[in-house]
Amino acid sequence: MTATTSRRVLLAAPRGYCAGVDRAVIAVEKALEQYGAPIYVRHEIVHNKYVVQTLERKGAIFVEQTEEVPPGSIVMFSAHGVAPVVHEEAAKGRLATIDATCPLVTKVHKEAVRFANEDYDILLIGHEGHEEVIGTSGEAPDHITLVDGPGDVEKVEVRDPSKVVWLSQTTLSVDETMETVDALKEKFPLLISPPSDDICYATQNRQLAVKQMGAEADLVIVVGSRNSSNSVRLVEVAKLAGARAAYLVDFADEIDPAWLDGVSTVGVTSGASVPEVLVEQVLEWLAGRGFEDVEIVKAAEESITFSLPKELRRDLRAEAGELMRGDTSEG
Ligand code: SF4
Q: Mutate which of 133, 169, 200, 205 to test ligand 1's pocket (most atoms within 8 Å of Cβ)?
């Protein structure tokens, strides 16, 4: 008797673009249409190679530092947010700015400012060197201490243990963050929590879906870039949920066929900065190797959208007004 091997794909939902990334990418495209190329963008607008390369082809220029932008140009700040000092640098360089910081990152910035004004010590849970953490820390450098995981807790010191609050980066692993918080609470029993979740809805939902599929999948493929925090977290969450192996790929051609040895169920998902076309290419690659059955693993519904950055909305409205007036006068 010949054994038949059933091969299937579990496809996570939700996956891919979150509202903050969608808004930031559309903001660059609209800015290019509205003002013409080049539009300078400080840091990668979102952490995805494909998105960055596509926007570069359309006329966006990505820079690491504000000083690299020629005076009088337009510069956009990425979805990860920037410290107030970066706004000051832009003003000094006579740059017109468009701020594409995700509103959920801005929310954390505002919490940091509020708690700093009330003279709290703020323990910011996040990854050292990540752009979002640099931006949030810059709001209140004298009040914020970075805590990069449970291993950092021992060395954390505060001025007054009765006046301490924790905040976090938006794209962390929910479970690991709670581990860090528990360790912090043991050390500082009066530690207070942020008024609402700092880890954003998109990060939480993508992790939830991966947890559900990870328990059943032999292999999980996460589409995303290595510098994308939320994508890297999805790989970790998949392994913790029980997947035998989990890998991060930017493109389908990075998948090693050997990963499929002995595998009958493959989980597929993508980080919050990944366009769906890249997932479709992975599904095609798998279908070509007998993984044609695709089942959706749905963990949540998402319907959040954010309006474009205010500077862009203002100019688009002004242009629409001029067009209307032009139509009337020609009328
Ligand atoms: S991952 Fe969350 S915080 Fe980051 S851009 Fe998307 S919605 Fe905003």
A: 200
Mean pLDDT of 129-144: 97
* Nearest to 71, CA basis, from 92, 56, 86: 92
- Sign of the CA dihedral running 243, 248, 252, 258: negative
Question: In the block, which residue shows the tokens 């979150």?
Answer: 18
Nearest-5° angle of CA 297, CA 14, CA 149? 105
**How is residue 268 written in tokens?**
């597929």
**Is 44 an active-site residue?**
no
Q: Return phi, psi of residue 163, to 5°.
A: -135, 70
State the Cα–Cα distance between residues 299 and 80, nearest whole angstrom.
25
- Domains of the chain in start order, with CATH, are 8-17+201-298 (3.40.1010.20), 20-101+306-326 (3.40.50.11270), 104-187 (3.40.1010.20)
The reply, when asked if residue 307 is annotated as ligand binding, is no
| Interatomic CA distance for residues 254 and 235, integer angstroms | 15
Please check if 205 is assigned to a binding site.
no
DSSP-based three-state secondary structure for 136? helix
Residue nearest to atom 7 of ligand 1 (CA): 20
Q: What is the pLDDT of residue 3?
A: 46
Atom of ligand 1 nearest to the CA of 46: 5
Nearest ligand 1 atom, CA 105: 3
The answer to whether 36 and 321 are in contact (CB under 8 A) is no
Per-residue pLDDT tens over the stretch 34-92: 999 999 999 999 999 999 999 999 999 999 999 999 999 999 999 999 999 999 999 99
